[in-house]
Amino acid sequence: QVQLVESGGGLVQAGGSLRLSCAASGLTFSNYAMGWFRQAPGKEREIVSAISIDGGATYYEDSVKGRFTISRDNAKNTVYLQMNSLKPEDTAVYYCSTTRLVGRAGRIYYSHTEYDYWGQGTQVTVSS
Question: How far from 85 is each of 11, 63, 67, 70, 88, CA to CA, in Å?
């Protein structure tokens, strides 16, 4: 069965950095696009970033462009989210996710309805 395990969250001051990791198992990782989502209290889950199977295509939500970087290491079955210049509004539970559809180079999925498997989430708290 597919398992996604996030790590790397924590408490950081505004302007600081965190690197989230998501280790995947139970799938041929290099065949599947990946995404990072977040959900703040009282808000809907929103996509933060996504990456194609080969890493050649990426997507960033407008508020994180220039601050966050998504990457993947297919040899380690891991996707990363480097978060710099963190702001209090970045505070949320961050989830990694993947689809059950075998991807193709350059293909990214943007909606949470296109994702089928989710990790347990990791809390990111940014203090002002």
Answer: 14, 12, 6, 15, 10
Task: Determine contact, residues 127/35, Cβ cutoff 8 Å.
Answer: no
Burial class (CB in 10 A: 0-12, 13-18, 19+), 1: exposed
Q: What is the pLDDT along the chain (128 residues), one digit of tens a residue?
A: 999 999 999 999 999 999 999 999 999 999 999 999 999 999 999 999 999 999 999 999 999 999 999 999 999 999 999 999 999 999 999 999 999 988 888 899 998 899 999 999 999 999 99
Rounded CA separation 42/7 (Å)? 23
Q: Are the C-beta atoms of 38 and 94 separated by less than 8 Å?
A: yes
If we measure between CA atoms, which residue out of 66, 45, 42, 56 comes closest to residue 110?
A: 45
Distance separating alpha carbons of residues 106 and 100, to the nearest angstrom: 17
CB–CB of 84/126 below 8 Å? no
Gyration radius of the chain over CA positions = 14
